[in-house]
Design goal:
This protein has 89 residues and is α+β, with helices and mostly antiparallel strands. It has 3 helices and 3 strands.
C-alpha cells in the first residue's frame, strides 16, 4: 500500500497535571545578567562605561569618578529586573 498513511485524530489533548498548565517560565537574559546586579531593595547596580580603554586622555579626576558602581534609575531598574527573571548574583 504505497502512499497510505495512518490517520491521526485532529486533536489529541495530552495528559496534563494541574501544575503543568502554567505558562512557561521567562528565561534570564544573559547579557543583562553579566552587566547588572540587583540590590536588596531591587535597584540595579552597574559598572560605569568609558573605563576599559583609551583612558590615557582622561583627566585623573574623571577616571577616579568613574570607579566603582552606580545605581540605575527606577524605570531602567524595572526593565532590568524583568530581564533577570529573579537571577542575580
Amino acid at each position: 500500500m504505497r502512499g497510505s498513511r495512518q490517520k491521526m485524530p485532529a486533536y489529541c489533548p495530552p495528559f496534563t497535571s494541574p501544575s503543568a498548565r502554567i505558562m512557561p517560565k521567562q528565561k534570564t537574559h544573559k547579557g543583562t545578567k553579566k552587566r547588572f546586579r540587583l540590590t536588596a531593595k531591587g535597584k540595579a547596580k552597574h559598572r560605569q562605561s568609558g573605563t576599559s580603554h583609551l583612558a590615557a586622555r582622561m583627566s585623573h579626576k574623571r577616571k577616579r569618578n568613574l570607579r566603582g558602581t552606580c545605581v540605575t534609575n527606577d524605570t531602567n531598574s524595572k526593565i532590568i529586573r524583568e530581564a533577570l527573571a529573579g537571577n542575580s548574583y
